[in-house]
């Protein structure tokens, strides 16, 4: 039997947040609010902005968050409302419990947020790239009719198509940190505007990533400054 999960064992994706009436509402489709616990610090995606701060679990089942700081991006009003509800919920939390892969956070005995454990192992997963940082701090879509893929095997090999050629590299990860070794690929030339430049950029970016965030269908990779570099969806989606 697997040991019960603890807060810091993995990140958690939000599945429902209490509204102003105290009723749990599912998160808006296409949003990915989450929470990551590490030592006495917490961070995550609020729905639109990134947030971070301190937390405390001084008593069994107790949970309290310190003042959380956030980035200042603007998003759709519905998304911003959801973010405010989530951050308010965190501000009021005083207890938690974990059952299987489900985390409940409560305030005065009432559930104010529900979470599902996010798997953290990349081993034996396959992904298709949908977004690539263009070097100007913007994540651009992959060129139409090209496919860039990534397969992570248990022996530490990363392989796939880089849009024209195939490539191989090594990878190792611990918690949400990752290091990808230099990629080696075949050398054929492909037609199509921007295809070879896209391939070169992808192989370059693989070496820049330092952290990742994954759920059942999405994989995002970030550099050491927290800028998103790569965005994948699970192969077959």
Can you walk me through this structure?
The protein has 237 residues and is mainly beta. It folds into 2 domains: 7-117, Lipocalin (Beta Barrel), CATH 2.40.128.270; 125-234, Lipocalin (Beta Barrel), CATH 2.40.128.270. 12% of the residues lie in helices and 43% in strands. The chain has helices spanning 77-92, 195-206; strands at 12-18, 24-26, 34-38, 41-45, 50-56, 64-65, 69-70, 95-99, 102-107, 110-117, 125-133, 139-141, 149-152, 157-161, 166-174, 177-180, 184-185, 211-214, 218-222, 228-234. Strands 1, 2, 3, 4, 5, 6, 7, 8, 9 and 10 form a 10-stranded antiparallel sheet that branches. Strands 11, 12, 13, 14, 15, 16, 17, 18, 19 and 20 form a 10-stranded antiparallel sheet that branches. The longest helix is centred in the middle third of the chain and has 16 residues, at 77-92. It is elongated and about 65 Å long.
What labels would you give this structure?
2 domains; 237 residues; 2 helices; mainly beta; 20 strands; single chain; ten-stranded antiparallel β-sheet; elongated; Lipocalin
SSE arrangement:
Layout: E1 12-18, E2 24-26, E3 34-38, E4 41-45, E5 50-56, E6 64-65, E7 69-70, H1 77-92, E8 95-99, E9 102-107, E10 110-117, E11 125-133, E12 139-141, E13 149-152, E14 157-161, E15 166-174, E16 177-180, E17 184-185, H2 195-206, E18 211-214, E19 218-222, E20 228-234
Antiparallel strand pairs: 1-2, 1-3, 1-10, 3-4, 4-5, 5-6, 5-7, 8-9, 9-10, 11-12, 11-13, 11-20, 13-14, 14-15, 15-16, 15-17, 18-19, 19-20
Write a compact overview of the structure shown.
With 237 residues, this protein is mostly beta strands. The protein contains two helices and 20 strands.
């Amino acid at each position: 039997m697997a040991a019960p999960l603890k807060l810091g064992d993995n990140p958690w994706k939000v599945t429902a947040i209490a509204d102003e009436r105290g009723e749990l509402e599912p998160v808006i489709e296409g949003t990915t609010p989450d929470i990551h616990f590490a030592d006495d610090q917490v961070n995550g995606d609020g729905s639109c902005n990134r947030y971070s701060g301190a937390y405390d679990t001084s008593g069994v089942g107790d949970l309290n968050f310190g003042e959380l700081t956030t980035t200042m991006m603007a998003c759709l009003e519905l998304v911003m409302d959801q973010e405010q509800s989530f951050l308010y919920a965190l501000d009021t939390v005083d207890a938690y419990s974990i059952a299987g892969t489900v985390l409940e956070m409560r305030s005065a005995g009432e559930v104010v947020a529900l979470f599902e454990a996010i798997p953290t192992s990349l081993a034996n997963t396959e992904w298709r790239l949908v977004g690539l940082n263009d070097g100007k701090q913007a994540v651009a879509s992959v060129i139409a009719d090209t496919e860039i893929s990534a397969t992570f095997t248990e022996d530490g090999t990363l392989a796939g198509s880089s849009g024209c050629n195939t490539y191989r590299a090594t990878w190792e990860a611990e918690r949400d940190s990752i290091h990808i070794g230099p990629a080696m690929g075949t050398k054929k030339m492909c037609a199509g505007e921007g295809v070879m430049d896209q391939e070169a950029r992808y192989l370059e970016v693989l070496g820049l990533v330092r952290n990742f965030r994954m759920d059942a269908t999405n994989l995002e990779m970030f550099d050491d400054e927290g800028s998103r570099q790569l965005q994948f969806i699970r192969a077959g989606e």
